[in-house]
C-alpha cells in the first residue's frame, strides 16, 4: 500500500513538473510573438496597423504576466515540498533535479523577456528623440534626456503644434510611444521583482534545508538525552528497589528477633507459674514429722 502511494505521489509530481515545463514553453512562445509585434509597431507607417499590433501585444503581455506569477508559485511549492521530504525518500533526488531544471528555465525566460523589453524601450526612446529633434533641431543631448525622462513636462511640442502640421503628427506619435514606455517600465520592474524572488528561493531552500537538518540534529540530541535520563532513571529505580528489599529484610529480621524474645519470655513465665513451690512442701513435711508422736515402749515386770 505504501509503495502504491509512493508511486502515485511520484506520478503526480512528474505530471506537475511537465505541466510547468509546458507553461514555460508557452511563455517563450508569447515572448517571441511580443517581440515580433514590437518590431511591427516600431516600423509601422500606419496608425491603424500600429494600434492593432499594440492591442495584441497588450493582451499577450497580460497573459504572459499571469502565467509567470502562476508558474513562480508552483515552482516555489515544489521547493518547499522537497525540503520537507525525508532524506531517505527514493524520489527526492529526482524531485531535486527537476526543480533545479525548472528553476533555471524559469529564470532564463525571465531574463529573456526583460532583454526583449529593454530593447523595445531603447528603440522607442530613439524614435522619440528623433521626433523631438524634428521640432527642436537645436536641442542638445541634455535637453533630449530631460524630455525622455518627462515628456509631458516639455512644452516644445505644444509651442510647435500651432506652427506646423509635422510637429502635430510628431506630438501624437510621441504620446503613444510614451505610453508604451510607461508600460515597458512597469513590465521590466515586475520581471526584475520576479527574478529577485526566484534567486531568493535558492537561498530560502538552503535556509529551509539547514533548518530541517538543525531540527533533526536537535531532535537526535533530545532523544539521546532522554535515553540517558531513562538509563539513569532505571539505575536509580534498581538501586531504590535494592534499598527497599534490604530495608524490608532488616525490618523483618528485627520483627523476628522481637517475636522470638516475646515467645521466650512468655514460655518462661508459663513454666514458672505451673511448678509447685519447694519450700512449702519441705516445711509441711517437717511439720508432719514433728507432729507424729514417737511410740514409747513400756517394760512390764516379769
TrEMBL record:
Low complexity composition bias: residue spans: 272-302
GO CC annotation, single: plasma membrane
Membrane topology category: Single-pass type IV membrane protein
The keyword Cell cycle belongs to this UniProt entry's keyword annotation: no
Organism per entry: Rhizophagus irregularis
GO molecular function: SNAP receptor activity; SNARE binding
Region Disordered, residue ranges: 270-302
Stored PROSITE patterns: T_SNARE (PS50192)
T-SNARE coiled-coil homology domain residues: 171-233
Name under which the protein is recorded: t-SNARE
